């Protein structure tokens, strides 16, 4: 999972394993899908729980390029947020999938 994030998706150029380890301590455990031969990670999502005067807001980010995987992660993150008692949820995913998501 760590290598997948660093190589595939992270936008900060100075991002390294130590920074990612720090982020993992502040986020919920990631949801990982391994569909490729050899168990290679094909998608993942993770969430950050923010508590403030408005209650609990869950910010969940999905890292995948496939619609089916995106929908699966969105559902799983919504279930987790509901179980945590979230008052609001912000879902982030690949914007290129928006036309397909609108058609579902």
Describe the structure.
The chain has 104 residues and is of the alpha+beta class. The protein is 39% helix and 26% strand. A 4-stranded mixed sheet has the order 1-2-3-4, covered by helices on one side. A hairpin with a 2-residue loop joins β2 and β3. The relative contact order is 0.16. The model has no long low-confidence stretch (mean pLDDT 83).
Brief characterization of the structure:
The protein has 104 residues and is of the alpha+beta class.
How large is the count of helical segments? 4
Question: Helix-strand pattern, N to C?
Answer: HHEEEHEH
The biggest beta sheet reads: 4 strands, mixed
Average predicted local confidence, pLDDT: 83
Uncertain segments are none
The whole-angstrom Rg is 14 Å
Which shape, going by the Cα principal axes? Answer: globular
User: How many E strands?
Assistant: 4
The fraction of residues in strands falls at: 25-35%
Distance between the termini: 29 Å
| Portion in helices | 25-40%
* Category from helices, strands and their pairing: alpha+beta
Strand order of the largest sheet: 1-2-3-4
Question: Key terms for this structure?
Answer:
single chain, about 100 residues, 4-stranded mixed sheet, 4 strands, alpha+beta
Secondary-structure blueprint:
Elements: H1 2-9, H2 17-26, E1 31-33, E2 43-52, E3 55-63, H3 67-83, E4 88-92, H4 98-103
Parallel strand pairs: 3-4
Antiparallel strand pairs: 1-2, 2-3
